[in-house]
Design a protein that fits this description.
With about 170 residues, the protein is mainly alpha-helical. It folds into two domains: about 30 residues, no CATH class; about 120 residues, no CATH class. Helices cover about 45% and strands about 10% of the residues. It has a two-stranded antiparallel sheet with strand order 1-2. The chain has a two-stranded antiparallel sheet with strand order 3-4. Strand 1 and strand 2 form a beta hairpin. Helix 1 packs parallel to helix 3. The two termini are about 20 Å apart.
C-alpha cells in the first residue's frame, strides 16, 4: 500500500497502478527477488477471503457465486427434507459464514447474496416459498425454521471477533 499526504497532513490512499518505487527482497542465497505490485483497487486472496481496501465488490461476487452454486446443487439433487436441513446447517452455513466477520456488507446486499440459496433450501426443507421471513428466521419453539440471515451472522462474527481481541491481553498490547 502506498499513501500520499494531503496539505493538512492526513494520509490518503494512493490509487496508483504502478508502484512508487521498485521493491525487491533477497532470497536465502542473497539474490534479489522482485515483489510484484498489486494495485489498491484489486483484491488479494488471504485464506479464502478477497481483501481489497475500500471495495468489496469482488468478495460479494465470490459469495454470491458460492451461494448460487449451493442453490443449484440443492435444486438439482434428490435430498430429503432432513438431508437438506443438514446440508444447510453443516455445509452452506459454515462455508458462507467463514468470511462474513471481516466484511461490512449492508443487509440489502447480503439479502441479494442469499436469495436464491435460501429459496432453494426453504423449498427443499418442505416449506412454502412464500412463508414470511419472520417465520423463516424465527426460533423453532415459536414455530420458526431457525434459518439465519447472513447479515445477522456478519454482525455476530464481528462482535465475537472484537470480544476475542478485547479479552486477549497479549494481543491488545500491540
Amino acid at each position: 500500500m502506498h499513501y500520499d499526504f494531503a496539505d493538512s497532513g492526513a494520509p490518503v490512499l494512493s490509487v496508483d497502478d504502478e508502484p512508487p518505487f521498485p521493491l525487491e527482497v533477497k532470497d536465502s542465497h542473497g539474490n534479489p527477488v522482485p515483489v510484484t505490485h498489486v494495485p489498491n483497487s484489486q483484491a488479494i486472496k488471504y485464506l479464502g477471503f478477497l481483501k481489497c481496501i475500500g471495495n468489496q465488490t469482488q468478495q460479494k461476487a465470490a459469495l454470491m457465486k458460492k451461494a448460487d452454486d449451493y442453490a443449484r446443487v440443492v435444486n438439482c439433487s434428490p435430498l430429503s427434507r432432513r438431508c437438506a436441513n443438514i446440508f444447510y446447517r453443516g455445509i452452506y452455513k459454515l462455508s458462507v459464514d467463514y468470511v462474513l466477520p471481516l466484511t461490512y456488507f449492508s443487509e440489502k446486499e447480503l439479502g441479494e447474496v442469499q436469495k436464491k440459496a435460501h429459496t432453494a433450501f426453504v423449498t427443499k426443507c418442505g416449506y412454502c416459498r412464500k412463508t414470511p421471513l419472520k417465520v423463516i428466521y424465527g426460533p423453532s419453539r415459536l414455530g420458526g425454521t431457525e434459518f439465519f440471515h447472513l447479515y445477522d451472522l456478519q454482525g455476530y462474527g464481528q462482535v465475537s471477533s472484537f470480544l476475542k481481541y478485547w479479552r486477549t491481553p497479549s494481543l491488545a498490547t500491540y
